[in-house]
Design a protein that fits this description.
With 765 residues, this protein is α+β, with helices and mostly antiparallel strands. The chain has helices spanning 2-15, 17-38, 52-63, 89-103, 114-118, 124-133, 158-174, 184-189, 194-213, 216-241, 249-278, 283-293, 295-310, 318-339, 341-349, 358-368, 375-399, 401-416, 437-449, 469-479, 511-529, 541-575, 579-604, 624-654, 657-687, 692-724, 733-738, 748-754, and strands spanning 71-78, 110-111, 144-149, 177-182, 424-425, 457-462, 483-486, 490-491, 498-504, 535-539, 620-621. The strands form 3 sheets. Strands 6, 7, 8, 9 and 10 form a 5-stranded antiparallel beta sheet that branches. The two termini are 25 Å apart. The chain crosses the membrane at residues 21-40, 199-219, 226-243, 249-271, 298-319, 325-349, 402-426, 556-575, 587-608, 620-644, 671-689, 701-724.
Length: 765
């Protein structure tokens, strides 16, 4: 049985702690070395099979136009506010020098030539018209754009971005120009701002652990385990990036979820370990029994998280599937660390964990101290006082289940209402703070050329068998009301494939841009091509992201149904009940829906956005709702498993549903709230990052966990379980015979690990 295997594993690790710790050190070093030797860099392939934008990308790649590679843009304006590039020779000379220096950078395939366009005619009017029509200089002559073409990302590195940034820093001091930069090169190789967030999250977790346990040793062990696991997990993710494209958000999300679940899992095992120490057990035996009892819910909870995240595969969006696999690896490593490395730490710590540290004893003594009482008895009294407070609260809720159930459910449903206005998209450089050069470049381009210039579309056409189709395409596309301009077509001589760069009238985040893309595909392009053999597809970053957003929205109901079904079956196996997993599924849906609603209110409506450094409203990133559902559903199940495992134990011990609810919830409430506070602190530390996607992940996860650990676990769960009574544990007899294993806390192994006499199952037929 699982509990017996965990008992042996935990006890063995506690008896030989230094061997296990050394093995983890070796594993961490090997993982880091493998990441250095074989790892790759994260890349965002925001495409999926069968999408129109993917077909456009395939045509562009066949044509070899270079537009499939990375790009950057250098946006400049004279420092003299009255000067323009049309009439200021010094500014134009500086622009020429800047173009020349950028062309000399390593791996640069070429640049646009605004200075050459300015010099193409004989007088100012002609020169200005030529430059403006090429989209290189704004109509007022104040802003010029040098577009820089690089090869594909596999041939580049962060050194290419550093070279461009260093050149800009040097030229700012030498030229009479304001120089700003942006483009996909920055998106791919800018260092993520998750390092500071991870440190803030760890410090916050340490503070909460100290308040919970009052011991520096108890603080160090969960954090040390989480750091070990995160090191191995992120290094493994880097190795995976050498094999396939791992999205850039995966390391940040993996760190966020890994720290949260790692410290949480360690907290539950550590709390049970201290219970056994308080009973007078030897530290090594206590560690083994703690892993056997708390470790089993850890395994099931971690399995639920992994199952939920791997369910992303049903979306059929490769970068989401790979990102889910990467995050799942981190969660699995944290589960393994919780049942191997942590008991080794507990065995090495010995009896020091049986008492609080000096500062912790002072704090607890202020609450419960009586003269002459030993330190261990004072600690036990403090824990009993906390449990008594929760017992009174849960008893109060259980005596008034209807108003609490209705009120809490109504509150969560109200918070869910903003979801009706959910709009997906992708925050671009316009969502970054003004301190970033990418944001300043974005604003200059929008000011000089219109908002659509920041999100150009690329129409790839294969005119095979219809030589006149290109002229019709240019004319019909240019006539569309959502298109501001069409750049001259580029035709590849070898393949005959043509590419048109098209600039919408609206920005890449605007719903109108998505409408324009849809209209081009359904009306404009078919009208130009007719029924001939030629074909054309709309691509570019804006189109790709719009397509991915539409596909994820279409697949979300299927994904939700798959995750709910898998989680229901897993919980039914764990608790041998039909109504307990059904209730868990419904309550978790409420907390996740409320988190979605709060995200819409903050990011789309701007409510409280300044508190997390959000400078402008943005749409919800297209893939985040699906990712959040997977992660949040799994994490919510963590608390469900931990709480109901204890309720189940009490039910089997007493046979009384009401007593089991009050005792089970009150005994786990302090640990669950501490664990939730740790997760909320870790996730909120990412909500203050500069990147809007990190903000969304951080705020969404923190909000859902807070709601789940307070409103759901401490109000809705006891209220609904009280209303259901003994039917909580109802399971048809025929179904019980079909299910393998037994519920948590019902077999001899569990009894052996807890030191209690085994009791028969009390499942209503």
């Amino acid at each position: 049985m699982l509990s017996k295997a965990l008992l042996r594993l935990g006890a063995s690790a506690a008896r030989h702690p230094w061997r296990v710790i050394a093995a983890w050190l070796v594993a961490a070093m090997l993982a880091v070395l493998a990441a250095v030797a074989f790892g790759g860099r994260n890349a965002d392939a925001m495409t999926a099979p069968g999408l129109d934008s993917q077909r456009a990308a395939e045509l562009i790649e066949r044509a070899g136009t270079g537009q499939e590679g990375m790009t950057a843009q250098v946006v400049v304006t004279p420092l003299d506010g009255a000067a323009t590039f049309f009439d200021h020779d010094g500014a134009r000379t500086a622009l020429t020098r800047l173009q020349t220096e950028v062309k000399r950078l390593p791996h640069v395939l070429g640049t646009s030539d605004p200075a050459g366009a300015l010099d193409a005619g004989g007088d100012t009017a002609v020169r200005g018209d030529t430059a403006v029509r090429g989209g290189l200089v704004s109509a007022d002559g104040r802003i010029a754009v040098v577009r820089v073409q690089y090869p594909d990302q596999s041939r580049l590195s962060a050194e290419d971005l550093d070279a461009l940034v260093d050149l800009g820093d040097r030229l700012r001091a030498e030229l009479p120009l304001r120089i700003e930069m942006g483009g996909s090169l920055f998106y791919a190789f800018s260092d993520p701002d998750g390092g500071a967030s991870e440190l803030i999250g760890l410090l916050a977790a340490a503070a909460i652990l100290f308040l919970a346990f009052g011991s520096l040793v108890a603080v160090a062990l969960p954090i040390g385990m989480a750091v070990f696991g995160l090191t191995v997990g992120v290094a493994t993710m880097t190795v995976l990036a050498g094999v396939t494209d791992v999205p850039t958000f995966a390391p940040v999300l993996g760190s966020m979820v890994g720290l949260g679940v790692g410290i949480d899992y360690a907290l539950f095992v550590l709390a049970r370990h201290r219970e056994y120490l308080a009973r007078g057990l030897d530290p090594r035996e206590a560690a083994g029994r703690a892993v056997a009892t708390a470790g089993r819910p850890v395994v099931f909870a971690g399995g639920t998280v992994v199952v939920s995240i791997l369910g992303l595969a049903v979306a059929n969006v490769p970068f989401m599937t790979v990102g889910g696999v990467a995050v799942s690896i981190v969660v699995l490593i944290m589960v393994v660390a919780s049942v191997t490395l942590l008991p080794a730490f507990l065995g090495a710590a010995g009896p020091r964990l049986a008492r609080a540290g000096r500062i912790g004893r002072i704090g607890r003594a202020l609450q419960t101290r009586k003269p002459g009482r030993p330190a261990r008895r004072r600690d036990q009294a403090a824990g009993t006082a906390h449990a008594a407070g929760w017992r009174r609260w849960i008893g109060h809720v259980s005596r008034h289940p209807v108003p609490y159930a209705v009120g809490a459910a109504g509150l969560l449903l109200t918070a869910t209402l903003p979801v009706l206005g959910l709009r997906v998209g992708l925050p671009d450089d316009g969502s970054l703070p003004h301190s970033r050069t990418e944001r300043r470049a974005y604003d200059l381009v929008a000011e000089g050329f219109g908002p659509g210039t920041n999100g150009p579309l690329v129409i790839a056409a294969d005119p095979t068998g219809d030589p006149g189709v290109l002229d019709r395409l240019v004319a019909t596309v240019a006539a569309d009301p959502g298109i501001a301009s069409v750049a001259p077509a580029h035709i590849d001589r070898a393949t005959g494939i043509a590419t048109l760069v098209v600039f919408p009238t609206t920005g890449p985040q605007d719903k109108a841009t998505a409408d324009t893309i849809a209209r081009l595909r359904t009306d404009v392009l078919p009208a130009a091509i007719g029924h001939g053999p030629a074909r054309a597809h709309v691509g570019g970053a804006a189109a790709s992201l719009s397509d991915v957003g539409r596909r994820t929205s279409q697949r979300l109901p299927v994904f939700v149904a798959a995750v709910l079904a898998m989680s229901f079956l897993l919980l039914m196996l764990v608790f041998r009940s039909v109504l307990v997993p059904l209730k868990a599924v419904l309550l978790n849906l409420l907390s996740i829906g409320a988190a979605y609603g709060i995200m819409v209110a903050v990011f789309q409506w701007g409510w409280g956005g300044a508190l997390i450094g959000l400078e402008a409203t943005v749409p919800i990133v297209s893939f985040i709702p699906m990712f959040l559902f997977a992660i949040l559903f799994g994490l919510s199940m963590d608390y469900e498993v931990f709480l109901l495992s204890r309720v189940r134990e009490e039910y089997l011990r007493t046979g009384d549903n009401g007593t089991a609810i009050v005792e089970g919830v009150s005994r786990t409430a302090r640990i669950i709230t501490s664990a939730a506070l740790i997760m909320v602190a870790v996730f909120l530390s990412f909500a203050v990052a500069e990147d809007p996607s990190s903000k969304m992940f951080g705020l969404g996860l923190a909000t859902a966990i807070f709601i789940d650990a307070t409103v759901v676990r401490m109000v809705l769960v006891p209220a609904t379980m009280t209303l259901l009574g003994r039917t909580n544990w109802w399971l048809p007899k025929w179904l019980d015979r079909m299910l393998p294993g037994g519920p948590v806390g019902t077999d001899d192994t569990d009894a052996e690990s807890t030191g209690e006499a085994p009791r028969p199952r009390l499942i209503d037929r």
